[in-house]
Amino acid sequence: MCWLSLTRTNPPMSLLLTMGLLDACWVFSISDVWLQNTYYILHREGMMAARAMPAFP
């Protein structure tokens, strides 16, 4: 409801809010992908290191 009243009274403000939300979503998706890639790389490196190590006693 608050969103609608803002949109009706102040178009530039609602546009700004929408852009802000989109920007936040974009940043979150980018960081999410980055985290997944980092995790994957660390996991892969860890597996390689584990394979290279001699067997644990």
From TrEMBL:
User: Transmembrane segments in this chain: where?
Assistant: 13-35
| Keywords assigned by UniProt, alphabetized | Membrane, Transmembrane, Transmembrane helix
Protein's organism: Terriglobus roseus (strain DSM 18391 / NRRL B-41598 / KBS 63)
| Lineage, broadest ranks | Bacteria, Pseudomonadati, Acidobacteriota, Terriglobia, Terriglobales
Tell whether Transmembrane helix is among the UniProt keywords: yes
Output this protein's name: Uncharacterized protein
Q: State the superkingdom.
A: Bacteria
